[in-house]
Amino acid sequence: MDLDPKIIALVVVAILVIAAIAVMVLQRRKAALRQRFGSEYERTVKEQGSERRAQTLLEQRAKRVEKFHIRRLDAAERDQYAERWREVQSRFVDDPRDAVIDADDTVASLMGALGYPMADFEQRAADLSVDHAHVVDNYRAAHEIALLHRKGQASTEDLRQAMIYYRSLFEELLHGRKSDETREVA
Asked: Which residues, at least 6 apart from 75, have a Cβ–Cβ distance to it below 8 Å?
């Protein structure tokens, strides 16, 4: 039984078209995730050891966060948090060590008030990365400095940098912006 060369050619062309469409879909998926998650995309790829696993994890993360009841603060709540932050910052000059701990606590409190679950730090950072990808690196860095500080291993310059990182996240959360609405990073 001989196969018609035209049928073989059509099958090959169909396979190539399907393969090209699949590649385009995968590239768009990758581009969309990179756009949404920024440097968190690369961090997750490195952590997972596979782009496909990282993409799946990031998509699952986004679906998890969609189920949260994230809300905007009303004006009075915003004013209270803004005042609390001003107090934390003003104490930095006289007591940078306690101010950084208070900054960490204030950011965590604000996240809870907004509706983020207050699981362990890594889960909070992962959840935060969905809508605030460009400042989640700041959050991770500030938290790392706070941990070093609790061990007595952070310099005053480290603590100053942590405050800058916390402030960038705090401001974004307080004003209800998402990563695609602002690009101000410490």
From this structure: none
Distance (Å, whole) CA 128 – CA 61: 10
- For 154, counting Cβ atoms within 10 Å of its Cβ (0-12 exposed, 13-18 middle, 19+ buried), the class is buried
Q: What tens-digit pLDDT sequence spans the chain (186 residues)? A: 677 888 888 888 999 999 999 889 888 988 888 888 988 899 999 999 999 999 999 999 999 999 998 898 999 999 999 999 999 999 999 999 899 999 999 999 999 999 998 878 999 999 999 989 888 999 999 999 989 998 989 999 999 999 999 999 999 999 876 644 443 343
DSSP assignment string, 81-134: HHHHHHHHHHHHTT-HHHHHHHHHHHHHHHHHHHT-----HHHHHHHHHHH-HH
As a whole number of angstroms, the distance between CA 54 and CA 182 comes to 25
pTM here? 0.76
Nearest-CA neighbor of 91 among 79, 106, 112, 76? 106
**Spatial CB neighbours of 136, under 8 Å, sequence gap ≥ 6:** 40, 125, 128, 129, 169
For every residue of 41-77, DSSP letters joined together read HHHHHHHHT-HHHHHHHHHHHHHHHHTS---PPPHHH
